[in-house]
């Protein structure tokens, strides 16, 4: 299964590997922003295993681990750069020593500063997809970045750009003016129940819909239940205001109920729960590119197995929607 990033002609595997977790710890005022301690050697093995299994799209951000994710990805892909499509993000200023986010970088000048830093950490002379990481940046500020992004394309430092945002009006604003605007990355999983406004926008504007959180931060792996508790060294145990899937480190009961409602459909025909959840995303729209986060070889192997099984049928997608609509 393959996808194209908008109208760029950039071809990627139907699934990517999200590299947030391999960055290790970093922090904001709300607490942990990473996923706890990480084993770099296992992360490198996981990236290489993903590539061997046909995954060619790797998504990271400069802020993940305060630069560490980009560096680990560079190590893992050494000698194989021409086989992959690398996506990274900018917009959060951070201190690499303290690993704390220090503010926002939303000016044209900062775009140039950030892209040069990412190129160094990634050990490459170009970035395939460069994404704005400030989801709620006002439209007028975002518009002021387009000329610089287009210049970076012309200079060969990036091939295309995107916006990581859950707000369709933001993506709409770039869609009319950004010649090399290729994708919107947004939070999307079976927990949403069906197409979101952002998915529909991507279809209409011929943009790739890159799906972060396709496994609902781990809930759709089946690993967590009502008794699970995640520590404060993990973003799911933090006080981040946008964290709804977990509450004080415990899975949100509402989402556990939604999971149970659709478990049977997702695990039919030999799918694991995670594979069924990824297949549902593909079944909803052919512009979707889920990027489940991985930090172990075992996770990579399970997720990549979804490529062989492909999308759920339209009947299964509709059944999931009905079941979720009936769930309190």
What do these coordinates show?
The protein has a single domain, classed as Alpha-Beta Barrel (TIM Barrel), CATH 3.20.20.100. It starts with a strand and ends with a helix. The longest helix is centred in the middle third of the chain and has 15 residues, at 108-122. It is globular. The mean pLDDT is 97. The protein has helices at 40-52, 68-76, 108-122, 139-143, 146-154, 168-175, 197-205, 253-266, 273-284, 297-309, 314-325, and strands spanning 2-4, 11-13, 16-18, 27-28, 31-32, 57-59, 85-90, 92-95, 100-104, 127-132, 158-164, 181-187, 208-212, 246-247, 250-251, 288-290. Helix 3 packs across helix 5 (146-154) and helix 8 (253-266) runs antiparallel to helix 11 (314-325). The chain has 328 residues and is an alpha/beta fold. It has an eight-stranded parallel β-sheet. The chain has a two-stranded antiparallel ribbon with strand order 1-2. A two-stranded antiparallel sheet has the order 4-5.
